[in-house]
Specification:
Helices cover 21% and strands 43% of the residues. The chain has a four-stranded antiparallel sheet with strand order 1-3-2-6.
Length: 125
């Protein structure tokens, strides 16, 4: 078992959660000040290394090895996303971030909350 911290489409209420994490153990949600900024790549977010701390809303799960391999595949690890461990109140957890790529011009997710960002883009009917 290992822990994973997710911030985008692997969070609860998104399809990738239902496909990959629904059967895994949810530990909780928290907002951490991390040395990354969140950007929108359209249908999903990414974290980009920053020299400042930014609030990032994460959900933490215990996952088994099979799930870890599936998440690596979804994230395009290690060529698209890379991962590192971050401290959470649930223990150290993997987080995936974008490295060695040009992300100028991408929309920032100012509050570091993908769910809030995406629902703000949906018009109320």
């Amino acid at each position: 078992m290992r822990r994973i911290a997710v911030y985008g489409t692997l969070r609860r209420n998104f399809g990738n959660y239902r496909a990959l994490l629904e059967e895994q153990e949810f530990l909780g949600q928290e907002t951490l000040d991390l040395p990354y900024r969140m950007v929108s790549l359209g249908g999903f977010p990414g974290l980009v290394v920053s020299d400042k701390l930014h609030p990032i809303v994460i959900e933490v799960f215990n996952i088994d090895d099979e799930c870890a391999r599936s998440v690596d595949g979804l994230e395009g690890y290690p060529t698209f996303y890379t991962r590192t461990e971050i401290p959470t109140s649930f223990g150290d957890a993997w987080v995936y971030y974008l490295a060695n790529k040009d992300f100028k011009g991408l929309a920032p997710v100012e509050e570091g909350d993908w769910l809030k960002f995406i629902t703000a883009k949906i018009p109320v009917q």
